[in-house]
Amino acid sequence: MSTIAMGHAGTEAAPAEKKGLWSWITTVDHKRIGILYGVTAFLFFLIGGLEALLIRWQLGAPDKTFLSPEAYNQLFTMHGTTMIFLGVMPLSAMFFNYFIPLQIGARDVAFPRLNAYSYWVFLFGGLVLNASFLFNAAPDMGWFAYANLTSKQFSPGLNVDFWIIGLQILGIASLAAAVNFFVTIINLRAPGMKMMRMPMFVWMSLITQVLLLLAFPIITVALVLLMLDRNFGTHFFVPSGGGDPVLWQHLFWLFGHPEVYILILPAFGVVSEILPVFSRKPLFGYAAMVFSGCFIAFLGFGVWSHHMFSTGMGPMADTVFSLGTMLIAIPTGVKIFNWIGTVWGGSIQYKTPMYFALGFVAMFIIGGLSGVMHASPPADLQQTDSYFIVAHFHYVLFGGSIFALTAGAYYWFPKMTGRMLSESLGKVHFWLMFLGFNLTFAPMHILGLNGMPRRVYTYSAGMGFEFWNAIETAGSLVLGFSFLVFIWNILRSLKAGEVAPADPWHGATLEWSIPSPPQEWNFAVEPTVDGRDPLWEERRAKGGTLPEPERVSGAGIHLPSPSYWPIVTAFGTAMTLVGFLMHVTLWVILAGLAITMLGIFSWAFEPADH
Amino acid sequence: MAHDTAHAMHPPTATGLDTRKLAIWTFIGSECLFFATLISNYLVYKGQSLVGPLPHETSQCMLHGQMATCEPIFEIPLVTFGTAVLLFSSFFVVLALNGAQKGNRKQLIGWLSATVLCGLFFVGMQVYEFYHFFHKGLGYTTNLFGSSFYTLTGFHGTHVTLGVIWLATVLVLAIRGKLPPEKALNLEIAALYWHFVDVVWIVIFPVVYLMR
Ligand code: HEM
Ligand SMILES: [Cu+2]
Fold first, then answer.
1. Which domain holds residue B110?
2. Chain B residues with CB-CB distance to A222 below 8 A
3. What is the DSSP letter of A492?
4. Does any domain span residue B189?
5. Ligand 1 pocket, residues with Cβ under 6 angstroms
6. I need a surface site. Which of A544, A554, A605, B119 has the fewest CB within 10 A?
């Protein structure tokens, strides 16, 4: 095998700069795919946010008729489904894509074309789900789709079918990506990067992939069974045929609880990168962080029934699931103390990413505490299906995941684009978001405990709900506005932002050792690692400053060729599943399968390199 | 600025494991949960059917629109034979792989053909079984037993079918002389999947057919 020295002596020409739509459609570069994930997910996130604002507008005052009950049902279902599957998960996937290879010192992910396939399947899944609006048949039974509301008898329209097929397609994307990232992390680490030297973001990503691999097959089967019930006459969840609707709840939450960790662990990872860098101190309790993450994931598979206390499982099951749930608070607490320990005594740099990371820690503590409250069955029976639960999961999901992902966006934006975001706009964004978030969601605790039920499209005057609801709606407008500031900041910076150096934050991990944005091949020289904070160690060894890395010619560097087979195969995959939307549309299924097969074979026999 | 490993086509991996092999193992790990859920679904509804036919007992059922007495559905000898054939195919694919690694084309092609034939036989057996059960009164939606049985074994059969297509593709490569020893991994990966499909059946067979 030829090993060609860097420089112009190589026999291969330097890869030409790739431009244009076609280059994006056929890209297999993990960085470009990461950007595709990020932009797509952010757009879906904005749609989900708009849905939320409509919901809040309806609830702003009693007895409003701004939304019909039917529209309201569709909006809260699509809001929840969108935020989880099209917002937070793919936003995390943006960071997996862009930064796992960079942080472990790899050229790309293990299977670049499979990676492109995952993205396209995700995109098609999101489009199918949202296409339901065009048919006025958006899913309307809540994001956990309890049986037997989902039976043909009670949901005769296509609403539930869109949800089933959309999620099924998205699941394929997640599974393909999970295999890819799992293998990437295990196998493509640079020399010297032992498991216990991996950046914490990579560790948390690894655990997330394991959860994806183990939890998604369960929902896949559950969705298949539900589809069979609806379209093929089986009775898995239909009591009249002997089926048990509660089995759906078990299957859904067996997936659903690990899913909440799929949503939060990447956020834990992002924050564990940011806090040390802006405290100028190594992460406190690295090993404890790793093991508490593993422990959370492990326990996460054994507590699903805490979502089902109100089904009356009996004292034994209630006790076991209650204790298990409370147990999870321990490793979670370990993490929180470690974050505080990291910041404690550090030389804190008050930069925007740090604001959001600290905001995350504070908000997540509140969400975790309310979580432990409804881990107790008697308390939960009061709280379940009330606004208290809505408060809880928004403190962990918005206050947790979204704050952390936003922190990550500010932290890594310079690396991804080569431009700095404005610090002052960033801080305006933070304070508006922090204020808007708490105005919107903190009062929900009070309303919930006072008995306001979730998922009801209005409330009567005189129940004592008016005041806090009005505050919440006002808060949600502030929250929405804060994202306009964010978008403005991004657009402004892309156009005329300050040019970012390779390492604007004094980072500790490998991605900061290469130019911003990185060149297509990432590392001109494969890095060798001999510690947990490789860049800090190198900096120390070289007396405090590192030279700005130079952009090199890519001559002689081997890169995987672009390919359009991933998008073709993804299209075939999505088409096959869409064929099951209305009972069975045989020609769609067969054509979809044919395209998928064509794609797979062409892909398998296409030379991977040029 | 010369450096050896950075731009080699296939850099050694961090664990020494081949990347594609690790991927198929990962995928298999995930598939375990898929089948575990389907098997659980079958077990949850074991004995919950409102009408016959039933797996092991004579029962009241609807036949041709009227109540009738239905024979037990399962007939163990045929499926035992099918199970044995599938088990042997796992052994055959090991012999084929051994041939591929040694560069013994005859051994490779012979045993790989045998594997594919065994797989086809198993699928054929399943199709026959479904057809037969159907005529004994067990439709797809007749009762919970029928639905959960056909769903579980149907998905397994689909996996076997995909495995047959995969192995047949490799067989075509082998016949065309495109599977030299250094590419034996292409067969090894398909074989790993094949073993997995086999192992799943080793669980399904006793749990579904033998356990009363
Ligand atoms: C200390 C950690 C946590 C505990 C003890 C906990 C506990 C609980 C419990 C018992 C419920 C069920 C309440 C009910 O429906 O009556 C619940 C709901 C929920 N939790 Fe958590 N939780 C924790 C962390 C998280 C995290 C990290 C997330 C996601 C990032 C999360 C997301 C959710 C969601 C989405 C629901 C609502 C599901 C629904 O009914 O729509 N939780 N939590
Ligand atoms: Cu949970």
1. 76-212
2. 37
3. H
4. yes
5. A 144, 260, 263-264, 306-307, 325, 328-329, 332, 368, 371-372, 374-375, 380, 383-384, 389, 392-393, 396-397, 400-401
6. A544
